[in-house]
Amino acid sequence: MTNDMYAKRSLKVIDAESNDGSEEYKRQVHKQLSTTRLRTLSTQMSYRLDQGNGRCIYHVGVEDDGCHSLLGYSAVSESAWILESIARGLNAVVIGRKMIQNEIEEGEGRLRLADHPPLVIDEPSVLGVGGAILDGVTVNEDSKEEKTEEIINNSDIGVKKGKAHKLCTEEGSFTRCVLTIQMIETHLLDPSPLSMSSLARSRADSRSTSFSESMDGSMAATDLMDKAKGTVTVPEETKLEENQSVNEPEVISVEETLSSRNIRVAVVGNVDAGKSTLIGTLTTSFLDDGRGSSRTAIMKHRHEIESGRTSTSSSHLLGFKHSGEVVVGREKHRANRMKTDDEIAKMSYRIVTLMDLAGHEKYLKTTIHGVSSGMADYSLILVNSRHPPTHMTQHHLNLCCSYGIPVVVVFTKVDGCPEHALSTSRKEVAKLLKSPEINKRPFRIKSEADITTCIGKLASLAPTIDVSCVTGHGLALLRKLLFTLPKRRRHEKKVGRPFEFLVDDVFNNVPGVGSVVSGFVNAGELAVGSHSYVYVGPTDDGTFLKTVAKSAHIARINTTHVTSGQSACLAFSLNKEQRKKLRRGMVVVTESPTSTKEFDAEICVLKGEGTTIRESYQAYVHILNVRQTAYARDIKIVNTNNLGLPPSHGARADPDGIVLRPGSRARVTFEFAKRPEYIRPGMRMLFRDGRVRGVGLVTAIPSTAS
After folding, report:
1. Which residues, in sequence order, are CB contacts of 241 under 8 Å at separation 6+?
2. Tally of CB atoms within 10 A around 326
3. How far apart are CA 383 and CA 428, in angstroms?
4. In the 3-class helix/strand/coil scheme, how is 174-237 assigned residue by residue?
5. CA dist 541 to 595, 597, 675, Å?
6. What is the pTM assigned to this prediction?
7. Secondary structure element (H or E) that encloses residue 578, with its range
8. Parallel, antiparallel or unpaired: strands 626-637 and 618-623
9. Which residue in 261, 415, 496, 690 could disulfide with 468, CB within 3.0 to 4.6 Å?
10. Poorest-pLDDT segment among 62-76, 123-137, 548-562, 633-647
11. C-alpha angle 390/471/476, rounded to 5°?
12. Is 678 helix (H, G, I), strand (E, B) or coil?
């Protein structure tokens, strides 16, 4: 009998299957499916979608060698529905479902290929496309329902209107199906994807019912899907309100979300505080296993993964919907694939950009630069609850408060932490917060009501939250706090100023593009194109390169317009020699570019370790994205208090000139040691010589001062 079956399955209808490419052949997908088997099918479909750049074709009822499987309509139709449900779990929909019959006929006691053309019927998608936009055409559920009703009225099975032919569902009606599956953006997919376990349970519950016994395959599939999701019938008014709330985010501009509704949060703390683990847990919505599984999802370099120590600054998007629900950053059925920034941005109403900064003292320079150039609205100070705060915690607090950034203290690793150790850590942190340099009062958050209480008072309060990335304790409150935080920096008010783009990183020789720089739009707006002339610099000799901004990307989304408050990438038209001159710390402007080696600044020397500053004092200066060694050429004592810092004290005259002590305030003329830089009055600065020594404000450029 088996040999006869294999002999019958020798009628080739299409070419043999290839291991590569976007086409997959399936004889039949049986009802008795375990979760493991469903996950295997999901991985296989994901591979075919990747091979076809988001589109794949499934041939159901066909052997791997291209021969007809000789299955009936019921088996093929049910297999097609299961594959469509799996596709929905991968953020994909079926845009084409062709049922093919009358290819095989019986003659002279054996089966053979028919001489006449086969019967090809286009059936509607069982689960619909959820209002998705495919190939520029919007397909909504109403049109799908009208088409389904039209088909049911013409046939009990599903036949095109106006056609005399109909599909046969009797045994011996050899059928095969061609499914065209298209991946779409998740925010365009109205119904929620069906989980693998729910699909397996729904199949187990429906084993006693034949798929072809229902009035129509699409109606049976819809009933099974509703049963698996646990949905109930609701009044039409409620459905309308739900549809309005679901469709509401679709009218939101991605550019607006990434600018006016984007809050930038710097995450700092000691080396063992769990910064990368917390960011990985928040963005992926997957709990940590206690051995670093969450941090590996966001780390950039191999040595970081091996050592568990972050050495570079990186940004990660945490998206929220209108309701405050988190947009999961890791795909449900492809756990090893993280969603890209453009996918998260398109699905989100509000975005929190989490900046992962290094915690080890060895990388303090990198951390200071990240805080200086990151334009952070708020900062998360992470403290390991099992150990008291270290001197690095104090440095990070001083650093954030020096830039006027409100802080939120997060006690991590509270799972399994002894109560006395956690209590000691809280007391030590409270002492640091109440010190004269910080001058903040700790406020412990235990409920959502506490979040409402502290919002708006962050200038004097420092909220504290206990979290665990292993058990999930406190993560819901932390997400709620991040969603509730108001935007502090109003970059949209700078749109009327001249365009100013701060270069943070440079990528030369990008294939097919050329030179690309990434950074932050600090002021103004720019429309890129063939006539968008900009100045990039300054170079080592202080000059600027005039070039064309060809294109721009925001969160990997191609755009023609960038505006103040956005992190973007710009592509320039530069020759080989000009590309060599690009470096970090440059600026892109559209008018009146100037550079200088000298500038005046009002500074305040921070209290702490002994620091003596006099003329010719050499320090490393951070001014936004600019970082370079500078010398103090001239020092003058001032008594004004423009920065809101303590009045001058401790400065004294010396035979060699004025000497500044901790707490002193003065007006100092600095000179860069290596090359000119682009700076302007009003920029905040920080200088250090190993540790942070003081902060200040650029007041004038000698060449342009009156």
Report:
1. none
2. 20
3. 11
4. CEEEEEEEEECCHHHCCCCCCCHHHHHHHHHHCCCCCHHHCCCHHHHHHHHHHHHHCCCCCCHH
5. 10, 11, 7
6. 0.63
7. helix 576-579
8. antiparallel
9. 415
10. 123-137
11. 85
12. coil
What DSSP letter does each residue of 296-323 carry, written as one string? GGT--SHHHHHH----S-EEEEEEE-TT
Structure tokens at 666: 């003065």
Asked whether the beta carbons of 605 and 635 are under 8 A apart, the reply is no
Q: 647: which DSSP letter?
A: P
Chain-centre distance for alpha carbon 702:
43
- Mean pLDDT estimate for the chain: 79
> Helices (DSSP H) in 233-387: which residue ranges?
236-247, 254-257, 275-284, 302-307, 341-347, 364-373
Residue 135's identity, in one-letter code, is D
With beta carbons less than 8 A apart as the criterion, state whether 380 and 268 touch: yes
pLDDT level of residue 442 (50, 70, 90 thresholds):
very high
Amino acid at 31: K
Residues 381-402: b if buried by 16+ CB within 10 A, e if exposed: bbbbbbbebbebbbbbbbbbbb
Burial 161-192 (b: 16+ CB within 10 A, else e): eeeeebbbbeeebbbbbbbbbbbbebbbbbbe
The SS3 call for residue 69 is: coil
Neighbouring C-beta atoms of residue 583, cutoff 10 Å: 14
Instruction: Return d(Cα 140, Cα 318) in angstroms, integer.
Output: 29
Q: What are phi and psi of 68, to 5 degrees?
A: -70, 135
Taking residue 63's Cβ as centre, other Cβ atoms within 10 Å add up to 22
Kindly report the backbone phi and psi dihedral angles of residue 657, in degrees, each rounded to the nearest multiple of 5, phi listed first: 135, -170
Look at residues 563, 564, 562, 582 and name the one whose alpha carbon lies nearest to residue 572: 582
Q: How far is the C-alpha of 524 from the C-alpha of 537, rounded, in Å? A: 17
Confidence at residue 329, expressed as pLDDT on a 0 to 100 scale: 74
Task: Calculate the alpha carbon distances from 272 to 110, 310, 416, 552 in Å.
Answer: 74, 10, 16, 38
Residue with tokens 């008018």: 591
655-686 per-residue burial string, b: 16 or more CB within 10 A, e: under 16: eeebbbbbbbbbbbbbebeeebbbbbeebbbb
Q: Are the CB atoms for 287 and 472 separated by under 8 Å?
A: yes
Residues comprising the chain, all counted: 706
509, with CB counted inside 10 A (0-12, 13-18, 19+), is exposed
Compute the distance between CA of residue 270 and CA of residue 94 in angstroms, rounded to an integer.
Answer: 50
Alpha-carbon distances, residue 44 vs 56, 90, 193, 340, 462 (angstroms): 11, 11, 17, 21, 49
677 to each of 336, 543, 635, 682, how far by Cα in Å?
43, 10, 21, 15
C-alpha to C-alpha distance for 60 and 452, rounded to whole angstroms = 56
Residue 432, phi then psi, degrees to nearest 5: -65, -45
Residue 206 has pLDDT above 80, yes or no: no
Q: For 620, list phi and psi in degrees, rounded to 5.
A: -95, 120
Nearest by Cα to 67 from 14, 19, 24: 14
Determine what percent of the chain is predicted with pLDDT higher than 70.
78
**What are the structure tokens assigned to 509, written together?**
């020789």
Q: Could you read off the pLDDT of 230-243 as tens digits, one per residue?
A: 333 333 333 333 34
Two tokens, residue 260: 């006016």
End-to-end CA distance of the chain: 102
- Contact in structure between 329 and 318 (CB atoms under 8 Å): yes
Q: What is the mean pLDDT of residues 413-441?
A: 91
Yes or no: say if 349 and 250 are a contact pair by the CB < 8 Å rule: no
296 is written with which tokens? Answer: 């590996």
The residue written with tokens 């600095």 in the block is 670
Cis geometry, peptide bond prior to residue 538 (ω within 30 degrees of 0): yes
Measured over the CA atoms of residue 455, residue 462, residue 287 and residue 473, the dihedral's sign is negative
In the block, residue with structure tokens 């290094």: 358
